[in-house]
């Protein structure tokens, strides 16, 4: 395969390919750049659904028992009689919001989009190792998205056992209304999602290992490729475990087994299950669930590393340390899952082991944070929207990560477990940081995808309002969480001790509504710029990596003629002895030029 990849020096102009129809170009395309766009736009559409859900349940928490016309319009008479949200509807919204945002927006929007777009372009390959498998993986993702959305329309309502779908709520169909057909569709959708994720990951790994162009050694790869490569490896290790959990849960629900069930009573009736353990499900779920947060955040880290170096006009600080920290995070992320289960009755000694490995993961994370800060220190900063979102990501990653030290300690965690403190922590460190990484990547590589530029001023508005509102939503949550306010309660009016927190919840909801409204600025900017944006030049950011050597109008095969050869690492910015402040990877070393760049 690799030999073919390197020897294809044909002129890849349009004469070599059969005439493309609309269907072969835009629907069943095997071109990695088109598949990246398909993943991105699907991720954006799913993101709209996920954000609308979060606004609905935020309104319910801020103004419980109030009647809203929009509830009646969007949820229907059954879930919101007279415009007042029922508790079942609230649980369903929380569950579906979590599922859609974690898997269908962040995993697909980051890994699916940017692995597809950047891996072949940045390592100098004509395309992915298997174009057909790549196309198949997108269409299985699309099918899985459709099934997940369709579960919103079944009569008994969608899954509502939380996005972690712990048994017995998810395993006994008669447990709650959302345990019926909606839960089954959730499991089928997730099984398909995992399948496409594995197909994509294997494709990315093989492409990086086998199809690098001449001179592209592993230590000359951009950090984006390192993070996408390691993310794919984590996916191959961790996703099959969730698949097994989902299949065993389907058996428990539909075939009378009891892997996760034991001694269940419903309305006085004794069910026939015995011998299973719901804690076993927690182990299987979190064995994927913790690496999953790194599957989401690692690509964002890679994109941000690339953008910070390019926009600060400086070489990335500590290139090898960054690679080592990515590998360390990948390894440690698979041995910390127990910190989600400190209150499950875990053996205290085991709890202390998980505390140790969890606190250990702070070290490679801190290495990355310090290296980012050092990269922009005294740089010639170009404050474009991509750079602002990258700096924003470093900020939320640090602030969100600090609370992880509290949650990672088994004794401190008991006080704040299952409160809004946890919600604040993971939304900042994973949700908002990953979204910022995704926005940064979209603003930076938009010219590569569509040959046009996004509007800079709209990008500034988008960043500043989003930044203020994100902290406005999640910063106060730390305090109501430390005061003991539990999460996933659709109203707290039954508890007089929480009355004084009503105002904080209203404040959070107002920030959420404003922040979401300003995402329309981004949507307008994105879709308008595809058609009417300013035409891009070949290398608008004056970057050094290979993708900016391809033509502005994308062609199937990426480079007309031979694939360029690589001579240097990807971060030769502001190098002494050159007239320009960037030296592309394709420029050979000059006589007497310093080669020790790491």
Descriptive key words:
598 residues; mainly alpha; two-stranded antiparallel sheet; 18 helices; 62% helix; disordered N terminus; heme; Cyt_c_Oxase_su1_BS; iron; transmembrane
Give an account of the 3D structure.
The structure is a single chain. With 598 residues, the protein is mostly helical. Helix content is 62%, strand content 1%. It has 18 helices and 4 strands. It has helices at 2-7, 22-27, 32-62, 69-79, 87-123, 131-150, 181-210, 223-254, 278-312, 319-333, 348-360, 362-376, 385-407, 410-416, 420-450, 456-482, 502-517, 519-532; strands at 265-266, 269-270, 452-453, 534-535. A two-stranded antiparallel sheet has the order 1-2. The chain has a two-stranded antiparallel ribbon with strand order 3-4. A hairpin with a 2-residue loop joins strand 1 and strand 2. Helix 16 packs antiparallel against helix 18 (519-532). The longest helix is centred in the first third of the chain and has 37 residues, at 87-123. It is globular, with a radius of gyration of 24 Å. It starts with a helix and ends in a 63-residue tail after the last strand. It is a multi-pass membrane protein. Residues 22-567 form the Cytochrome oxidase subunit I profile domain. The chain crosses the membrane at residues 39-57, 89-119, 131-154, 185-211, 223-251, 284-305, 317-337, 349-374, 386-408, 420-446, 458-484, 504-532. It comes from Flavobacterium agricola.
